[in-house]
């Protein structure tokens, strides 16, 4: 697929949200080869952080795996811990009950683990116990859902919800230009509207579309489930007899969206997904979907890596700054037929 110039305002937005994603590179590129300065200056890397060090005990508490992305969060954390011989992982049972998760963190504190990686069921509800862990000298790595105060975590690892919207909207603008779409009908199927993450995704999408003088013409909100995706997509299709570009926020609910499209024999649109499921990537390979925007399911795995560095009192070797950053925001790239093979190993099963 050819690539055209991205509208300048949208390009600035992508640059802004993408720059923060570069921070995580220090976690994932620790080989000496990856750290050589190609410009002839001084190399920033001074050590290989993947070499075994002092054994550390990391407590991990994540959500119940009732959603493909959440299941991938948990499994990626477990697999990452197993890849290091100097990590002893104590993984609590996944739960959507804040009270149970609080008791899990209290157990980790009493056991004196070296670090805690926590994707909170409810960031506000888990803030107090996470703060207690920090006060006990146990560094907490907060994943995906932020606490109410920065004092509750040493480092926070986040996906970029606003950046997802920017990436989807920027790609939509590219499709408008490449295909010479005149007055295109652009539709959006959001997730749960009351959640800040959904609001951020929609705002990023609208902001990027503004860069090419477009806007969302038809919008519905689902609930991140297959059933709700199919129901809301069916409603949308009835209300909009013609759609040129459709962005669905979540690939798990996208299974239902795709079923509604197939049932209605609607294939006139460019269908863009969100989160990066394996089935969405297979649809891209088969020509049944245009693209999906990644919301990395590796956040907890990155959290495990960062917790190991903190517990071993190391920094990110590819950064000149010796300390682990307090905030790491991962990138939200667009996966298309051109690069799907690269991202397919990161895809999760819906």
Automatic annotation (TrEMBL):
<dbReference type="InterPro" id="IPR025997">
    <property type="entry name" value="SBP_2_dom"/>
</dbReference>
<dbReference type="GO" id="GO:0030246">
    <property type="term" value="F:carbohydrate binding"/>
</dbReference>
<feature type="region of interest" description="Disordered">
    <location>
        <begin position="29"/>
        <end position="56"/>
    </location>
</feature>
<protein>
    <submittedName>
        <fullName>Substrate-binding domain-containing protein</fullName>
    </submittedName>
</protein>
<feature type="domain" description="Periplasmic binding protein">
    <location>
        <begin position="58"/>
        <end position="314"/>
    </location>
</feature>
<dbReference type="Pfam" id="PF13407">
    <property type="entry name" value="Peripla_BP_4"/>
</dbReference>
<dbReference type="InterPro" id="IPR028082">
    <property type="entry name" value="Peripla_BP_I"/>
</dbReference>
<feature type="signal peptide">
    <location>
        <begin position="1"/>
        <end position="25"/>
    </location>
</feature>
<keyword id="KW-0732">Signal</keyword>
<dbReference type="GO" id="GO:0030313">
    <property type="term" value="C:cell envelope"/>
</dbReference>
<comment type="similarity">
    <text>Belongs to the bacterial solute-binding protein 2 family.</text>
</comment>
